[in-house]
């Protein structure tokens, strides 16, 4: 299938499957709107569905797409309007001239791109960016530097056509479907029912992305609480049910209810690994002769106090953490350190970094602006503890690992990983048992969305109530004094956080 300005033209068999599914669900419609109709695949499927609609409208910005759609549709008895419009500047509630009444179906396949990607494809057809939070909050979606076009269009449909109480059925990336449902919940938009049907986007479009058909019946008097998820368009029994709990969308609401006692706030703070965005210079490998070499092929000779063993996400997930060929330069002990001090404390390192200053000057992230040239992030006292519990953020299954020193030095993780610093080996062993135990595993399985770019995040890990997990874990094999010391650490942390909260309250 071709892709033009972010649109994947939908195969006719997929469009037909979607309409058949909607009919099987008992959804009724007499008017059909395809807001980004392209060559009219969904319009054709709607005209061939039973019963045939009274009226259809297709909108697209490209005249050649509309010409193809017009030819494909022929001369149906149904009233058809094909409109060359910019979807972003069209008020869908006011500007469309419907000639009939009746239940409305909005169906289609909006662009699977962000606004930045659409710009790179040569399109000027973009929504206006704004930081203004209007009555609907919709403009806030476009206030960020980059946002998903399909998400914007879906929210626009829900906002501008809410009075029609339409059924909306759109092919979107699964993460877009979740974002739409979250935003609808935040805005209090009523949805009578919602469900998700997964389909094979690679087979349909050649796209390596997790995608679905999002079906929402808008209107009613309540905000949706449960969202069944089906494994395919042909399945009538859901594989699991997403849902909302305390305002948050969870991956499996039924599993969550069994594990919710573990859901709270971690009394210990998870930290992210180091972020430097200068891998060619900062990351080194051991050579057979025992020297260190950077990714540019240069032998590196700098002060050993600033070089540490490095474990990255894939290696961590495999559990291959007793040795590593990788090393990383860590020029700071704390985020507040000014790297200018290296001129005197580590002259060889200073000369090496200075010789590659172009790499550091070329770092694109805004976090480096206004900071010392060689600064890195994700560094603090926790970086240099001998024992850590760590987990990769990029893998679908959470596998917590215990890390001890390598070659007499604390292991450093990259920024795809999260760590929990430990006071000693015994405490690390205890935390590892808790985090890999069944209670925490069930909680994370209920909360996680495996198709996310980063399934495990700091926000997710901070929801693990280690105190509750410690109280419930009857399977622990740690010595009683180790358990008592961890409980004390958790208690002191809880009291410290409470004190900070009271101080903040007084300062306000």
Provide the residue-averaged pLDDT.
87
Q: How many β strands by DSSP?
A: 22
Strands in their spatial order, largest beta sheet: 5-4-3-6-7-9-8-10-11-12
Low-confidence regions: 118-123, 129-145, 494-508
- Shape, principal axes of CA atoms: elongated
What structural category characterises the helix and strand content? alpha/beta
Helix content: 25-40%
Main beta sheet: strand number and arrangement? 10 strands, mixed
Total count of helical runs of at least 4 residues: 19
End-to-end gap: 57 Å
Structure description:
The chain is α/β, with parallel strands linked by helices. Helices cover 33% and strands 20% of the residues. The chain contains 19 helices and 22 strands. A hairpin with a 2-residue loop joins strand 11 (240-245) and strand 12. Helix 9 packs antiparallel against helix 16 (438-447). The protein is elongated.
Task: Produce the secondary structure layout.
Elements: E1 3-4, E2 7-8, H1 12-24, E3 31-34, H2 41-48, E4 55-60, H3 63-73, E5 79-84, E6 104-108, H4 115-120, H5 138-141, H6 149-160, E7 167-173, H7 174-187, E8 191-199, H8 201-205, E9 211-218, E10 226-230, E11 240-245, E12 248-250, H9 253-259, E13 271-272, H10 279-282, E14 283-286, E15 292-294, E16 299-300, E17 307-311, H11 313-318, E18 326-329, H12 342-345, H13 347-355, H14 357-361, E19 387-392, E20 401-403, E21 412-413, E22 417-422, H15 425-435, H16 438-447, H17 458-461, H18 466-472, H19 480-507
Parallel strand pairs: 3-4, 3-6, 4-5, 6-7, 8-10, 17-21
Antiparallel strand pairs: 1-2, 7-9, 8-9, 10-11, 11-12, 13-22, 14-15, 14-18, 15-16, 17-18, 19-20, 19-22
Helix pairs in contact: 1-2, 6-7, 9-16
């Amino acid at each position: 299938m071709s892709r033009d300005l972010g649109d994947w033209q939908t195969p006719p068999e997929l469009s037909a499957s979607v309409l058949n599914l909607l009919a099987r669900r008992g959804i009724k419609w007499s008017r059909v709107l395809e807001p980004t109709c392209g060559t009219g695949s969904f319009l054709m499927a709607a005209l061939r569905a039973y019963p045939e609609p009274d009226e259809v409208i297709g909108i697209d910005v490209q005249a050649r797409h509309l010409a193809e759609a017009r030819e494909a549709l022929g001369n149906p008895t149904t009233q058809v309007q094909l409109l060359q419009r910019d979807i972003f500047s069209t008020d869908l509630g006011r500007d469309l001239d419907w000639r009939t009444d009746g239940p409305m179906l909005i169906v289609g396949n909006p662009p699977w791109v962000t606004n930045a990607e659409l710009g790179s494809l040569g399109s000027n057809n973009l929504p206006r960016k704004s930081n203004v939070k209007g009555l609907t909050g919709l403009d806030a979606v476009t206030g960020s530097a980059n946002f998903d076009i399909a998400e914007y269009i879906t929210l626009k449909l829900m906002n501008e056509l809410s009075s029609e109480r339409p059924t909306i059925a759109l092919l979107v990336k699964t993460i877009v479907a979740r974002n739409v449902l979250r935003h609808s919940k935040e805005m209090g938009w009523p949805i009578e029912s919602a469900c998700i049907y997964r389909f094979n986007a690679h087979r349909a479009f050649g796209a390596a992305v997790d995608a679905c058909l999002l079906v929402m019946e808008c209107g009613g008097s309540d905000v949706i609480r449960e969202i069944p998820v089906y494994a395919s368009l042909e399945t009538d029994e859901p594989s699991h049910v997403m849902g909302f709990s305390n305002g948050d969308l969870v991956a499996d609401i039924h599993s969550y209810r069994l594990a919710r006692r573990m859901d709270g706030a971690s009394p210990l703070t998870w930290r992210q690994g180091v972020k430097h965005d200068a891998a060619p210079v900062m990351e080194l490998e051991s050579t057979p002769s025992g020297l260190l070499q950077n990714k540019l092929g240069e032998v590196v000779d700098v002060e050993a106090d600033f070089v540490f063993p490095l474990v990255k996400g894939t290696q961590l997930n495999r559990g291959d953490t007793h040795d590593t060929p990788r090393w990383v330069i860590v020029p700071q002990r704390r985020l507040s350190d000014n790297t200018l001090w290296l001129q005197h404390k580590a002259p060889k390192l200073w000369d090496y970094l200075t010789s590659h200053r172009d790499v550091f000057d070329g770092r694109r992230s805004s976090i480096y602006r206004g900071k010392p040239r060689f600064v890195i992030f994700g560094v603090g006292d926790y970086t240099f503890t001998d024992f850590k519990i760590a987990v990769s953020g990029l893998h679908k299954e959470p596998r917590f690992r215990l890390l001890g020193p390598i070659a007499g030095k604390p292991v450093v993780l990259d920024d795809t990983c999260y760590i929990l610093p430990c006071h000693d080996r015994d405490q690390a062993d205890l935390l590892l048992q808790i985090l890999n135990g069944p209670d925490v595993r069930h909680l994370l399985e209920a909360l996680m969305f495996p198709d996310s770019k980063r399934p495990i995040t700091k926000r997710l890990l901070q929801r693990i109530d280690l105190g509750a997990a410690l109280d419930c874990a009857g399977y622990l094999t740690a010595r009683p004094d180790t358990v008592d010391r961890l409980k004390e650490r958790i208690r002191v942390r809880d009291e410290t956080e409470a004190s900070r909260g009271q101080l903040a309250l007084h300062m306000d």
